Amino acid sequence: MEIWHEPLMTAGKGSLWDSLISTAGGENIGSLGTGAYPVFSIEELLKQNPDLVILTNYNLAEAKTRTGYETIKERLIEVDPGLFTFPTKRLWDGLEVLYGLFEAKQ
Question: How far apart are CA 12 and CA 31, in angstroms?
Answer without folding.
Answer: 4
